[in-house]
Input
Amino acid sequence: MRVKTGFVRRRRHKKLLKQARGFFGARHKHFRKAKEQLERSLVYAYRDRKNNKRNFRSLWIVRINAACRLNGISYSKFINALGKANINLDRKVLADLAMNEPASFTTIVDKVKKAIA
Output
């Protein structure tokens, strides 16, 4: 018995081609090329979601380091002393304070320096 996929295939193809909108050339028109590119694109998206976290963490570290050096302490000593001073702020919050509220960041650095001494 022959089974024709009919509307099931059409629905599957349309769903995939809708996801492939914006791709260049045949990659958004032809099903096979669109499917290949979409698989590759989803791999890139998964990989880059992980890389994005790394990039932001390094950006926060750079910002904290710059603010620390303005206050006369290195980044590594600052992070080490944060634990000793029982200040539980993560790098995201510290970087935001360093950028937007330098006065409050300076008070945190002063507390940390006291914990060192």
Summary: The domain at 7-116 is CATH 1.10.1900.20 (c-terminal domain of poly(a) binding protein). The chain has a mean pLDDT of 94.
